[in-house]
Amino acid sequence: MMHSRKKTQSYGVNERHQVVWLIVLAILMFVSIGFPLFQLFRKAFIDSKTLELGFSNFITYFQTPSLSHSIINTLNISLWTTAISVVLAFIFAYAMARTGIAAKPLFRYIAMLPLFTPTMMHGIGLTYLFGNQGLFTTGFFGWLPFSFDIHLYGSIGIIISEVIYTFPQAFLILSISLAVTDYRMYEAAETMGVGKISQFFHITLPSVKFGVISTCFVCFTLSFTDFGAPKVVGGQYNVLATDIFKQVIGQQNMSMGAVVGMILIVPSICSFIVDRIISRKQQGTFTAKSTVYVIKKSRMRDLWLTLYCSLISGCIVLLFAAVGFASMVKIWPYNLTLTFDHYRFYNAAGAGLSPFFNSVTMSFYTAIIGTAVIFFIAYMTEKIRLFAPLRQLLYFLAMIPLALPGIVIGLAFIFFFNLPNNPLHFIYNTMTILVLANIVHFFSVNFLSATTALKQLDKEMEQAADSMNVSFYRTFFRITVPMCMPAITGMMVYLFVNSMVTVSALVFLYGTDLKPASVAIVNMEDAGDVAEAAAMSMLILLLNLGVKGGYEGVVALINKHRSKRSDKLRIKANSLNSIKDSVGVDAHV
Amino acid sequence: MKKWVSLLLVSMMAMSITVGCANNSKDALNGKATNSGEKKSVETKNNKEITVYTALEDDQIQAYLTSYSTQHPETKVNIVRDSTGIITAKLLAEKDNPVADAVWGVAATSLLALDKEGLLEPYAPVGLDRIQDKFRDNAETPKWVGINAWETALVVNTVELEKKNLPIPTSYEDLTKSEYKGMIVMPNPASSGTGFLDVAGWLQLMGEDKGWAFMDKLHENVQAYTHSGSKPAKMAAAGEAVIGISFGYRGITEKKKGAPVEVVFPSEGSGWDVEANGLIKKPEMKEEAKQFLDWAISDEPMKEYNKNYAIIAVKGEGTLIPEGYTKNPLEQLINYDLVKSANSRDAVLAEWSKRYDGKSEPKS
């Protein structure tokens, strides 16, 4: 008796509302993730002429040497990038986590800089440094007695750009891996008289092996799918991402585009699976008894690593300074008079400043709507007790975008929303589709950080509220949302910044009047208006730094005002942020 | 404060979700009737709004359009601009559901290709009799009408040539000399109209076999094939390349801006094409689109075209030769069969891609 009454009680108003919400959310996610992906598969596996199901498109692809050669090129790029980036970032992260060098915050900020710009900017910077008229190639316009030419255009240029692009992401994951360790191991080694080098190979490396593996996959995936850098410095070196662009935009050959899209997903899926396995295994290496790593004094080590970090930071700063400088000179390299003309985008192939404002609007909507929707979905999957199958379905749908490069999302969206008989066809070429593409693109990362934040809240709050028959909306808005504010605002900033820099999905989807800034950069670069492209990149960088800096400033102020009580919370929030950053690496492809 | 923020969040979320729901239910209602629904929305938009696809240069379009918007302030023109190849591909892809109402300033060879697919509606714009025969479709009610012609030009960076102690090339033949190895940039004919007129021009000028043999040799010297026809000129102007195979207008504008370049019209003659207009065939063709096509060959825009191009489509004495062009621009053009080029377009592009696209980068 008791039992059954309890059951009828639990299907009260709240539950009915919840199940409706769950269904609505599931439909929304099917429409924006499931269906488009299905269309992509269909396009890839259905022959474009005979309309038969099968591998004929793939066969055509592999029989066209100019296309299939790109696979080898892309693998080549990605492997080199991964090797270089992981090594460079590992040393950098090691210096930050395990040494006593000065100016760590400065180094850290500089290392993060490439995250705030479209990848085209790295390529543009490189052309000004190492292109045929670059600073180094010409020996600083002949002021220096020597000069060197690295033959930028082609694989070398792409690899350097991708290293710059993946470096901060690799650095973030490795920093977290290096931060979590058990110092007792080192103490034991010390008492047993094990040498420093041996300690490094037998304790440090094994303890971060999962971090390193996952970094490798992330770097590989990012460079495998990046479109911006190869577009600018690729020269005649074709890679998969630029092939998609040529096939789809240039020749409107959708089936070939879909085939390349399928190939692009492969490493992301591997990376996704490996990441899942690792995150399961990693639990338990760090226990409550573990002690915090103590940095020992070593002047030699600190000196060398300061030098190393300065070198890396110097390179990044130099690259950005080159773009900034080039955006302000009249005619590089023949007339170095300073001017702001390029910032007027007068006559350039990008339609003035409007793309910049389009991007700002788009990023703003993405940040607000994206955060609201993602957080709510995370709440519904995490905090509701009933309807487990529905919630698992939502969770599954929410994780799919983690394996989708932006370019694939863009492609899937055209295939789905451009179907003439799709009732949602009307959002094609509008702001809605851009915002939707961005939300899907960055969905999983933010979903995970929202879930993490929600997990840290005590479940009993919901249960108590529920037992007192408080409406779950009230619980959600009065308790959950305020408690998770740090995570929510973090998500907003993340969504804004990444929407400003992303190009891959948008390049297929923008309407005539709504060209985003990142696409304008691609167009201007295509037309040869490189100085204007540089200027637009600078605007994006400055705005993003402003937003991120402003946010950090506000957070710091709030933290300062809080009492000591909140110290613990702050640590939590920080660790949360770093977790988010670490999973965030997959996002801005 | 917190309350306020969460309230904002709620309303935003509620909005986005209800909008989503509303859409869903509306879709469910509309169901199969989408096609008619779509047309309706176009119809309501029809209200003095046209979409024009063009491959004209970005920096020209605004100047050209000023006279249109003063004459027809009530009509909003949505311009979709991209390189010739892209615009052509886009129009072909949208052929079952055309978005564009008219094309303006797109290569005649491309329009001929579109015509083969039945995309163009014959229309005789007002003032058609003023257009030279060479620059229009010769049917009585033409499917395409030209506005100006543009031609191959070499844009040569003199500073870089001097540094390397090399002479200025004056002919196509010069470009194949080994001393220019890795210095030449040209547009990819698949995406760029200029690239296509270069390639098709060589094939007609030299004949198939010799033409391809020439391009094989040229390929040895090419540093990169670019997406657009302007980029080679701009790269030469910036010294990123030494010689850009581009078109007259672009080279001359770069020179005017102060870049150290010379514009060379090759001695064998220039390949050329006509930038032309046409009406897109669709269920409801708008009066405004026809009005636009009338305007596009009227005096005022012709004067504007003439500021940039030496050869404009109207007959008569009044045409100016803009600064920087050779004295007799018409004589510079090679004998060129547009229709033949258009018919062989697909085959030529396929052959070109097979030969030169996707090879690993040439070592410079």
UniProtKB/TrEMBL annotation, chain B:
Q: Keywords, A to Z?
A: Iron, Metal-binding, Signal
InterPro entries per record: ABC_2-AEP-bd, Ferric-bd
- The membrane-spanning stretches of this chain are none
> Which GO BP terms, alphabetically?
thiamine transport
Q: Which domain of life is it from?
A: Bacteria
Q: Which GO terms describe its molecular function?
A: metal ion binding; thiamine binding; thiamine pyrophosphate binding
Per its UniProt record, what Pfam families does this chain match?
Answer: SBP_bac_6 (PF13343)
> What SUPFAM superfamilies does UniProt report for this protein, alphabetically?
Periplasmic binding protein-like II
- Summarize where Fe cation binds, as residue positions: Y249
Signal peptide position in this chain?
A: 1-22
Can you list the GO cellular component terms from the UniProt entry?
Answer: outer membrane-bounded periplasmic space
Database matches in CDD domains: PBP2_Fbp_like_1
What this protein is called in its record is Putative 2-aminoethylphosphonate ABC transporter substrate-binding protein
What is the originating organism of this protein?
Paenibacillus glacialis
